Every structure is written in C-alpha cells, then in structure tokens.
Amino acid sequence: MTSTQTPIDSPFGYRSTAREVVEGFDLSGKTIVVTGGYSGIGTETVRALAEAGARVIVGARRPQQALEVLQDVPGDIAIIPLDLLDPASIDAFAQSVSDQHQSIDILINNAAIMASPLMRDARGYEAQFAANHLGHFQLTARLWPLLKADGGARVVALSSTGHRLNGLDVNDPNWERREYQKWPAYGQAKSANALFALQLDMLGEPHGVRAFSVHPGGIVTPLQRHLTMEEQKAMGWFDEEGNVNEAFKSTEEGASTTVWCATSPLLDGMGGVYCEDCNIAAPASEDRPFGGVHPHVLDQGLAEALWAKSEELTGVDFRP
User: Fold this and answer.
1) What's the total number of domains in the chain?
2) What's 211's DSSP letter?
3) Mean pLDDT of the 212-228 span
4) Which of 27, 93, 111, 143 could make an S-S bridge to 54, C-beta 3.0–4.6 Å?
C-alpha cells in the first residue's frame, strides 16, 4: 500500500550530492534507464549511478549532444534516441531496450520542459503535459514487462515544487478550452508527474514495483531555456548583478534526491510518496511556501482519473 507521506530518518539532506548518496554502493549488474540524462541534473544522475557500477541507458532527444556530454563519464553508458513528444520514437526506444535487456531495475523519468510558450505535438497535445507526463506514461507502459520481470524495480518521476502552482484539469489537460498560461501549464504537468507515481505505485506494488516522485530543488540548468534573465530576476532566482540565489542547489545536489529514491535501502517496501531533500516531504505549510507537498497530488481519486485520461490520450492500455 502507499506509504505515509511523513519524513523518515535520512542521513542526507538539502546539500547532499548524488555521489554522496551512493557512496559505497555497488550497483554492478543493475540496469537503469534515465530520460534526458545528458543535461543538468540528468547528467549528474547518470554520472553517480554509472560510477557506482550500474549499466545506464540514456534516452536522448539529441543523441549527438548526449554523446559529447557523457563521453568522459566513466562507466557502462548507452545512448538511444528518444523523443517524448513522438509516440513512434517512444515505442522504438522501448523496443531497442527490450531487444538488449531482459529486465530493468530502475526507471528514472527525468526529462522535462518548463514554462515554454504554447507548443503542441503532432497530436495537438500541449507540449509540457505531453513531454513531461504523457511521454513518460507511454514509456513506462512499454517498459513495464522489463520492470516487473525480476521484482523489486523502482520508478522515479521527476516532479517539482511547481506542482503548487496549479492543480490538474483532467477535462482540459491540453489547454483547448482555456487561455494558455505557461506557468499554470507547468504546474499541471508537474502535478501529473506526482499523481502518476502515486497511481503507478498502487498498481505496481503487487508486482514488486514501487514508484516515487521527486522535487529536486531550485537549480540553474538548461531547463530554464524558455525564460529571460529578466523573468528569472523578477522571481528572485538571480540578483540584479546576475548572481544566482544562494538557496539554489548545484546540479550535483539537485540530482541527489532522484538517486536517493532510486537506490536507498531506507525506502525498501515503501512507495507512492513525494520526496525532496533526500527525504519524504512533509506537507506544505505557510512557513514553507516553496517546499513540502500539496494535498492535490496525494489524491488517489485524481490519480486514477489522470491514469484513465492518459490511457485515452495515448491509446495505451496500461493496466499492470
């Protein structure tokens, strides 16, 4: 059953790095899939896991760039093309992985776009919802036989404190009836990521598969490519001189909660929780406006409704 959304006694915290989280771990023999594992915190996620001995498969929309970024990262790393806005590309990626591997131990749905202008995929779906959620929904479905093959697999979905910005409109997820707003659209997509993990965990537990959602923290990465410096200064991410907010994490620190959820033995037998700072997050409160988890992403009924809508929109019957 879904674990209680209550912090536990974790030896790691806000400034821990991904490498520190897996220090002393031997992940030899583990196969891990990471989407977008060649940019920002994705790169550091791959680095920490590969250095710990895992075989890491990176899904990359820009394979050549991925090759250039990861060529000096030691370890067993494979790069396979993957465009989360293209259902055919998702299926081809999953088939390629299935042709080479009989099981997957960890799936990290890391890739994302943020606060973009209105863009739509070939199906007409709004890009933030399509790439951040629907693409990963289809990918997880296609990789499901490999995830449940040996039991004990984990799925980590990258959400964000941005989930606080907006709930989920299951009746209009693609902004066809509302005037598009980039930040509420991002909030909806990140809410969907957390709700996906909640429902996947409930459905996956009988098969030994557990799921977690993650807020990595504030980090300066290419994820901000659609934002001007003026916008980022107005939000307090940078000061007037262009210096980054001291509260922001480094990319190594930003990857830590993802890696913790993927590997920590403290989470054995647990799942369905939203995590931040290498711990299960506490409920959001007035004194922590940018931290904690908001009630709408813990709503099992909403998670079920999203799952059904996702099956409808993707044409994928994903019933583990």
Assistant:
1) 1
2) E
3) 79
4) 27
Does residue 118 contact residue 126 with C-beta atoms inside 8 Å? yes
Q: Which residues contact 35 (CB under 8 A, 6 or more apart)?
A: 42, 58, 59, 82, 84, 108, 109, 110, 111, 136, 139
Do the domain assignments include residue 13? no
Among residues of the chain, what percentage have pLDDT more than 70? 95
Element (H, E) at 108: strand 106-109
Q: How many CB atoms lie within 10 A of CB 182?
A: 15
Cα angle for residues 119, 144, 190 (degrees, 5° grid): 35
Domain with residue 301: its CATH number is: 3.40.50.720
Asked, for residue 7, whether it belongs to a domain, the answer is: no
Residues shown for the chain: 320
Domain extent, residue 251, equals: 18-314
**Parallel, antiparallel or unpaired: strands 106-109 and 154-158:** parallel
Count of C-beta atoms within a 10 Å radius of residue 297: 25
Residue with tokens 């830590």: 256
The answer to whether residue 180 is catalytic is no
Catalytic residue among 14, 38, 180, 186: 186
pLDDT in tens, 227-250: 667 776 766 767 787 787 787 899
Between residues 173 and 232, the one the model is more confident about: 173
pTM of the model: 0.95
Q: Two tokens at 219?
A: 């980090």
Q: Phi-psi category of 29—alpha, beta or left, where left has phi over 0 and alpha has psi -120 to 50?
A: left
CA nearest neighbour of 290 among 203, 200, 216: 216
Indicate whether 6 belongs to any domain: no
Helices 300-314 and 182-204, interaxial angle, to 10°? 100
Angle at which helices 87-100 and 135-147 cross, to 10°:
20
Residue 169 covered by a domain: yes
- Characterise 207 by phi-psi region: left (phi > 0), alpha (psi -120 to 50), beta (else): alpha
